[in-house]
Amino acid sequence: MCTHPPYANIIKYSDGLEDDLSQLKVKDFLEQMKPVAQECYRVLKKGKFCAILMGDTRQKGHMVPMSFEVMKIFQNAGFTLKELIIKEQHNCRATGYWKTNSVKYNFLLIAHEYLFVFHKM
Fold first, then answer.
1. Is the predicted pLDDT of residue 88 greater than 80, yes or no?
2. What is the per-residue DSSP string for 53-114?
3. N or C: which end of the chain has fewer CB within 10 A?
């Protein structure tokens, strides 16, 4: 099983579609990932794997490690973490807005995502 869920309020996947995870703030997104993790665990056969590609976000100049919160949610659902792979973002084009603000407010651009590979024992 592989998934790359829409990140909390980072990229909009719809215009007001009910239950669209991409429309949620981080806290609400993480709450909605709990039933997702439980359902993934329920439907996956024993001995098989679930891979999730997740990134982090930044709020008010500080990192919000959403990816690790999602990792914990899947572990709490019963999965065991088999691998943690860091995916470097190649050919990312920083818009003038982000590039300017990263210098102005002294923060690094996020240039990676995590691929969590979970095992259902």
1. yes
2. EE--EEETTEEE-HHHHHHHHHHHTT-EEEEEEEEE-TT----HHHHHHHHHTT-PPP-EEE
3. C
